[in-house]
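One record is kept unedited as follows:
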Amino acid sequence: MQSAACARSRPYFAVLAEAIKISTMTQPSLTFHSVHSIAVEVPTTYALGTSRGVITKVPLLLIDLETEEGITGRSYLWGYFPATVSAITKILEEVARTVKGERLAPVDLWSRLSERFALIGVQGIV
């Protein structure tokens, strides 16, 4: 026998599932156009001590992802030292060449890119 709490929660989840279904049906699909990135070093307010030394500046990679529909997404990645940022930039350039003109569908793109980078793995830089 179901508890009263379980019986009450079902309609909520049914409504939520329907809302998700409707929202995904009504959202226009976006198409990847390009990615631009710029490396910056940001000074920290406090020094971060590690076993390898003290970090007083944080290397960041500022990223803009542009779509064919004119929408730009923005993000940033933190690198432990400047060389990681340049390595990530090179990988992003390869990702851009691989998915140019494709529909932005995270699950599908993840599957495709994980196959593309299978030999070097998808941990760390990728």
